[in-house]
């Protein structure tokens, strides 16, 4: 994830971190961490939602590649996928 590019696009769209985070369904702290390079774990769902929001705000298409520099966001190696709602982790 290119946090500096995300921030530049967000600022071009003239929306605050709080406004962007609310629209995206994430916390402002999380978005700020991505923009500052503290979190590099933002996955594809975040990238897709960010592109959708920024494209809408800017009135022009914004792609995932515009935000990620063409690098597909993935969860860090070894991280576990969250359990589906209503299920218990490890239940068969």
Automatic annotation (TrEMBL):
HTH cro/C1-type domain mapped to chain residues: 6-67
Pfam families the record matches: HTH_31
PROSITE patterns the record matches: HTH_CROC1 (PS50943)
Disordered: region residues: 67-92
Residues passing through the membrane, by range: none
Any coiled-coil regions, as ranges: none
Stored CDD domains: HTH_XRE
Protein name as it appears in the record: HTH cro/C1-type domain-containing protein
Protein species of origin: Streptomyces synnematoformans
């Amino acid at each position: 994830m290119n946090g500096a590019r995300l921030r530049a696009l967000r600022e071009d769209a003239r929306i605050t971190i709080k406004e962007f985070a609310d629209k995206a369904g994430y916390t402002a702290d999380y978005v700020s961490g991505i923009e500052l390079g503290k979190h590099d774990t933002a996955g594809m769902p975040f990238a897709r939602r960010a592109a959708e929001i920024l494209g809408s705000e800017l009135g022009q298409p914004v792609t995932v590649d515009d935000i990620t520099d063409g690098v597909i966001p993935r969860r860090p190696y070894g991280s576990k996928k969250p359990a589906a709602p209503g299920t218990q982790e490890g239940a068969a």
